[in-house]
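Re: weekly structure request thread

Next one in the queue (218 aa):
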Amino acid sequence: MKSDNDLRRDVERELEWDPSVDAGAIGVAVKNSVVSLSGQVSSYADKVSAERIAKRVAGVAGLANDIEVKYSSERTDTDIAQAAALALQFDTTLPPGQVKVIVERGWLTLEGKVDWYYQKSAAEDAVRHLAGVKGIVNRIAVTPQVIPGEVRKQIEEAFKRSAQVDARQIAVEAQGNKVILRGTVRSWAEKDEAEMAAWAAPGISEVDNRLNITYASG
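Done, posted below.
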């Protein structure tokens, strides 16, 4: 198992390696394998990217993203709301008129109902890069029209097809339109991959990811 100092250096190097963020603006601290990110970035998208980069480093058991989004000039909530509404309107993956946005002090809250999880994710992606956005709360509900009876089997087959997921270590439990994942994975990236594979199944409105990360020693 990595020491906290080794893990901190690995996260710092990974941030430096990825050109999508300014690593010099981001501070990294590690305690008991939990990574804390601090500093200031110029957009909410950069904050999300920094978190994504840190999570893919082997040995990370938890993460606190305390990075502050600081814009050179403030944008009014009205301007942000209008831009967000337009971005949602032009996203062809979203059902027309089903997603609403509320803006308060640069924070966006997304509300509404969609049939698929990818639509919930797409709504957040559509507004993430807008100037002035400091954070996003995604409260969109996934309310599928059809709940298939073989959800568990479909997800297990998806795991077997995946090169990034060890299907032998994961148990899938289906409760109506909710799926519970149990077992162990080798990294946070594998845990996320398993969850996304479960979300891809038709009729799923909730995934309870209880997978434990067990890193190999040495």
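The mean pLDDT is 90. The longest strand covers residues 34-41.
Next request, please.
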